[in-house]
């Protein structure tokens, strides 16, 4: 019997560096996660590739998939839709693979309702001033949109109680190490491995 994989959900406010941390984790040789690529209706940022960073869809295409119940979660955020396709995730978990999701806070809370056994990690900024600096440095948002993102970010930080762990993204390498340590610890949890040893005892 294949041990079911872990669903690892990395979430946090816009601009905190979720994508940067996720890419750094996946660049490591000792990481063997399956990355579940999210869908979005926002325009690609410079350097982003369709089918690698996101599946970029039109709003019409996205709404059609919502009607067909093809998402684990989906959310509208600052005028755009984001969602996690369900089929790929469930297939990987049943094959014993650990699946890594990098999603917005609204979406993470939806996933928790459907996959309460998942590992939910909140990526937090060192400070609100640092978060605003990171958003501003992108150079892709207007002043109004930056203020809007900061208002939403404060609301999202207040929602960290819904998560299992909080990792501060002060330095990318440190954040990656903390996340990897969390995953190792989760695989060692008694509640996850007890069934395996019960079967072993029954055979003996």
UniProtKB/TrEMBL annotation:
The keyword DNA-binding does not apply. One of its GO terms (molecular function) is ATP binding. Keywords: ATP-binding, Cytoplasm, Kinase, Nucleotide-binding, Transferase. SUPFAM superfamilies: P-loop containing nucleoside triphosphate hydrolases. It is an enzyme of class 2 (transferase). Essential for recycling GMP and indirectly, cGMP. It catalyses: GMP + ATP = GDP + ADP. It comes from the Bacteria. It holds the Pfam family Guanylate_kin. Its EC number is 2.7.4.8. Residues 5-184 form the Guanylate kinase-like domain. It is found in: Cytoplasm. ATP binds at residues 12-19. The gene is gmk. Belongs to the guanylate kinase family. Its main location: cytoplasm. SMART domains: GuKc. It comes from Sutcliffiella cohnii. One of its GO terms (cellular component) is cytosol. The keyword Zinc does not apply. This is Guanylate kinase.
